[in-house]
Amino acid sequence: MKLPYSWLAELVEGLPTPDELADVLTLRGFEVEEMTSPGAAIRDVVVAKLLETAPHPDADKLTLCKVDDGSVTHDIVCGAKNMKPGDCVALARVGTVLPGDFKIEKRKIRGQKSAGMMCSKRELGLGDDHAGILILPSDAPLGQPLIEYMGMNDVIYDLGITPNRPDVLSAVGMAREVAAACGKSLKMPDVSPIAADVDADYRPSITLEDEDLCPRYTGIVMRGIKIGPSPEWLKARLEACGVRSINAVVDATNLVLLELGQPLHAFDLKKLKGEKIVVRRAKPNEIIKTLDEAERKLSEEMLVIADAETPSAVAGVMGGFDSEVTEQSTDILIESAYFHPPSIRRTSKTLGLSSEASYRFERGVDFDMVVPAAWRCAHLIAELAGGKVAGEITVADTQNDELLEPLRERTLSLKFAYCDKLLGTPIDPTEIESIFDSLNLKKESRDAEQITVRIPTYRKDIQRQADLVEEVARCHGYNKFAPTLPLVPLKTPEPQEIDRQLIQKIKEYLNGAGLDEAVTYSFTNETFLEPFPPADVSLENDACTILNAINSSECTMRTSMVPSLLQAVKRNVSRGNTNFGLFEIARTYTPHEGHVHEKKTIAGAIVGPLIGDWRNHKTEFDFFDLKGLVDGLLQTAKLTRYRLIPGPNCLHPHRGVWVQAGKQPFGYFGELHPSLAEKDDLSGRVCVFEFELAPMSQAFRKPLALYKPFSIYPAVERDLAFLLPDGVTAQAVEKVVQKQGGALLESVALFDHYRGKQVAEGFASVAFRLTFRSPSETLKEETVDGVCRSILDELQKKLNVQLRS
After folding, report:
1. Strands 580-592 and 515-517, sheet pairing
2. What percent helix, strand, coil does the chain show, rounded to 5?
3. How far apart are alpha carbons 511 and 91 in whole angstroms?
4. For residues 134 and 152, is the Cβ–Cβ distance under 8 A?
5. Helix (H) or strand (E) holding 753
6. Closest residue by Cα to residue 280 from 250, 311, 251
7. Model pLDDT for residues 666-706, shown as the tens digit of each residue
8. Cα→Cα distances 267→128, 321, 326, 333, 611, Å
9. How would you classify residue 638: left for phi > 0, otherwise alpha for psi between -120 and 50, otherwise beta?
10. Which helix (H) or strand (E) holds 523?
């Protein structure tokens, strides 16, 4: 926000210097991002009067001039023709440096001496007009610096205002803070009501149809307006704040916005059908032509200011072109209102239309400033455009107290002990009371433990006790707090869900194997996810749907990373890159009962030979290459005990497996199903893998080996061959053997599998080598035989497995 120092000086007497005030503002929480002086480049230019002119004897286009600066008369040769004796002009004397580093020197022009220059607006940096010199009003004081006469001897602050402080988005709001910081009083502009000058019984017709979006709307009618340009002081003030001057009426509304923070709008009353105002939601597909002459389609959730038939303004954002104030306007209606901030924010964003008004409305204006701001504007228009107030002001308020309650003043208490605890140092309660009083937080009560204050309507940011503590800290001075280290109890850090060292080792392993790390979006098209595990997930679950997706075709959080990597593979292959591998470590998102489970996952995709040279003539990376890669990956995680079972449907039916550790699979790898590869225009074999990192991390954290004393006693081996009925696996047999073998069974190893003429149909012969050993004695034959009989009995009982004779 841009704000002139001179404006603050008008509202608060006895200000420190501009540089000192900049430090005060910064310490109070309002960063001064830049300080500029618009007149610095022309500080040596003065007001002068043209005494007489004469033709140049040797040049028809030049004129000889005598110019008086109040003390010295200067002979000047000038090429302009728009001046005459008696005009006041802007004079750059010898030695003056103008914008563009142009220094004025004594010189001869076509044989005539010239000591100085009368300047145009362009030469002064005040505009683009170069047709003639700048002519000043005839009462301009001779010899006065031009920047003082034009009100440019000023400093402009460019202030950074945080979103929670809409109350300081105005000159009065910032002056209120300055007054509190400097111990001064604030001078408010005249906001008193004006008695009706004409049509004493007249009241503007205003109807609130949608009170939830506009709890207060005010209208003042003024007649007999004479539209014209604004005076120079008003133009200069608006320009200093970055606002373009339009005409006296519009400039008056803009000045009040900058001064009080309340946006206003002026309608040409005669252009309002029925001379009525109706505050309502827009009708479906209703069209309005805004002041920027663009036609905009409105939706039903947008609030409009309409006349008896059509919209005349987009509420809180921009006025309508068909009801704007022009040079022909004579009767106007001044609008001042409070609009629901979220509604204005949505409308502004939807329409892609932002303005000074919407910037303030969407942050929240002061409800109690709506009426005073309207009267302030009426005072200005009466002064600038000669208008007279017609009848009485109309203040249309909602009758719903629930809507008004949050907008009214409220009380809030601060416990002194809480303030001291939060700030880490004690603050005298008397100082706290003094701070609150300077901020217009009037005391309601105070005792030894707390103080209760009344929060004005413009301080919407003060909602809880901690906000009051912030005010104390801000006004006490952040620079006065001694730096201290917080007392934090030491606590052993909890282990990360996924070991960071494991992730680093996995990346090093895969990079060394020739794969490159990829980063893809966490959201994708749900049709890409359907073929991939987990198969029992509903991709239409709201928990995994992005409401404000960047692309409407990519609005589902991914349940698998393989589809995203396949899209990257497809892009690479289409550009001629046919042998590479990609991997990614990120999160997948699985919906479950309205919630989302996030899982850290690693996935990869490989096409072509990763390493091809004269020693390796393989043209494709196949399942067995991938199996070796995955085995190394799992060994990196110290996960050595796992089983391979038939894989998911997204993989080739004979070249894909699930990897199981414990009771549930935690990943899969294999060659992509040919139909899926063809769908993505990928020819040849495409190998993929995907694993949850949690089981790998658990294995990685376990000790690699536990010490167990060696037995000094000999081992006893038994080779047992069994007949297994179809449907019984060797794994099931091994489980029974290990359980019945107990502590004496040291190892079990499958060494033979046979089907043939010597084995009955429907059976398979498998042979295991069992190794027994005792840690405390030499085993006897009868002891081992007893254990083997127990194993055989349990196998026959549970699995109908018999010893092969």
Report:
1. parallel
2. 30, 30, 40
3. 74
4. no
5. strand 745-754
6. 311
7. 999 999 999 999 988 888 899 999 999 999 998 888 876 67
8. 32, 10, 10, 5, 76
9. left
10. strand 523-524
How many whole angstroms separate alpha carbon 389 and alpha carbon 441? Answer: 35
Q: If DSSP codes are grouped into helix, strand and coil, which group holds residue 306?
A: strand
429: tokens are 């309660």
Q: How many residues does the chain have?
A: 805
- Could you give the CA distance from residue 113 to residue 135 in angstroms, rounded to a whole number? 23
Instruction: Return the DSSP state at 21.
Output: H
Contacts of 780 (CB under 8 A, 6+ apart): none
Sign of CA dihedral 29, 30, 31, 32: negative
Closest CA to 804 of 726, 719, 738: 719
Residue by residue, DSSP assigns 374-420 as HHHHHHHHHHHH--EEEEEEEEEE-S-HHHHGGGS-EEEEEEHHHHH
Beta strands in 57-174 (DSSP E): 59-68, 73-78, 88-92, 97-98, 102-103, 107-109, 112-114, 117-118, 135-136, 156-160
> What is residue 545's DSSP assignment?
B
What's the token pair of residue 650? 């997204």
Element (H, E) at 472: helix 465-476
The structure tokens listed for 225 are 């307006």
Considering only 347-356, 435-444, 534-543, which range has the smallest mean pLDDT?
A: 534-543
Spatial distance between the Cα atoms of 36 and 154, rounded to a whole number of angstroms: 8
Please tell me the pTM assigned to this model.
Answer: 0.63
With b meaning 16 or more CB within 10 Å and e meaning fewer, what string describes 277-295? Answer: bbbbbbeeebebebbeeee
Token output for 254? 């803009």
Q: What percent of the chain has pLDDT over 70?
A: 97
Q: What pLDDT shows up at residue 609?
A: 77
Given the DSSP bridges, would you call strands 295-297 and 287-289 parallel, antiparallel or unpaired? Answer: antiparallel
Mean pLDDT of the chain: 91
Report whether 84 contacts 126 (CB < 8 A): no
DSSP string of 698-742, one letter each residue: HHHHS-S----PPP-SPPEEEEEEEEEETT--HHHHHHHHHHHHG
Work out the number of other CB atoms within 10 angstroms of the CB of residue 236: 19
Peptide bond into 18 cis (omega under 30): no
Other Cβ atoms within 10 Å of 23 Cβ, number: 12
Distance from C-alpha of 177 to C-alpha of 186, rounded to nearest angstrom: 9
Average pLDDT value for residue range 8-21: 94
Cα–Cα distance for residue pair 594/543, rounded to 1 Å: 6
Q: Are 584 and 564 in contact (CB under 8 A)?
A: yes
- List, for residues 499-542, the tens digit of each pLDDT value: 889 999 999 999 999 999 999 999 888 888 888 988 656 656 55
Amino acid residing at 19:
D
Contact (Cβ atoms closer than 8 angstroms) between residue 770 and residue 718 = yes
